[in-house]
Amino acid sequence: YNHQKVVHTTVVTDPTEILKQALSLVKDIISVEFSQRYLEPPDIARLRRNIAHLKQAKSEPAHRLLDILDFEYRAIEQTAKQHPATTALSLVTKQAPVPAIILLVSQLNHDAEAIMVTTEKLSRREFTTIPIEAR
Prior knowledge:
Shape: elongated
Distance between the termini: 17 Å
Order of helices and strands: HHHHEHE
Strand order of the largest sheet: 1-2
């Protein structure tokens, strides 16, 4: 995928064939400048835990913080659903038997939230994702 759409997916096949396909795709990679990220990507699991803990709190400040964190979580989820990274990973998992290992090569810039949301969900489905940060 790129920042706009899914470019290519493949079925599980011979490792040599996968390598050939990967090498042919690498030559088409272009670097796109995105707006600079000022904050760290969110820790989705931690955000969910904090929301769960705050739901048990009785104080008004805790409920206000809960509203803010819940708003953040819903915004991240909605954005992730519409991202090409989520679409690409969804297509790949439909073709891969569980358990499977998925290598993610990314600069974690425009796709950080989508990848984090999707990989968390994939881990619950017994997919292992290994991020390889491209620089």
